[in-house]
Design brief:
Number of helices: 5
Distance between the termini: 98 Å
Order of helices and strands: HHHHH
Oligomer: single chain
Number of strands: 0
Helix content: over 70%
Amino acid sequence: MEGGGGGGTLSEIYQSSRRLLLRARDGLERLERLESSSSSSSASSVGTGMNSSELAFAIKRDISQIQSLCVEMDRLWRSIGARGQRDLWKRKVELVAEEVDSLKESLDKILLRQQKRMLEAKERAELLERANGESSHILRIFDDEAQAMQSARNSSMMLEEAYSTGVAILSSYSVQRDRLKRAQRKALDILNTVGLSNSVLKLIERRHRVDKWIAYAGMVTTVVVFYGFWRWTH
């Protein structure tokens, strides 16, 4: 399966997520067909050269990418000004999120069933080997397949962790940006309310410098007076 990319606008990202949903759904259907025909000799491929482990990993990768796009779309629809358009996009994004959750649940069920069948088949092969000593090659086949399935599950966990990290980073970025915007608006409102012009600010700054020099002069005078008093008394 090829990776799908999202555009910059909400509409482009939405179209990318729909394409990925179609691809993931098609991959699930092929994986289910492969599962139902697992007893045949051609069960190791699904017409694309992929075995079940590779196909499951590709589907999981698409699902994780769709979830990331949902996070981005959720951020973008909130910035739409028109109430009607904002509500419409909110519902569209919710539908995509619900559909990708359903696909993820279906994939997890398939992976669990496959792992269970592998364990059962391995147990049967072990019984046969103990009975006639001629099933060692069968055990090796199932061991290889079980390891491939475990690798797919490990890769899925890594993708989920990466997705969670991405969600946390995007959410933190969105919150910080909203706070900065509110602070900027508040500062502008305060300046507009007070009505301070550049000339008034410069006048205040000059007055501050004058006050500072007066303070310095007072300190110097005090030192001189105390020094003269000390000299006079000694």
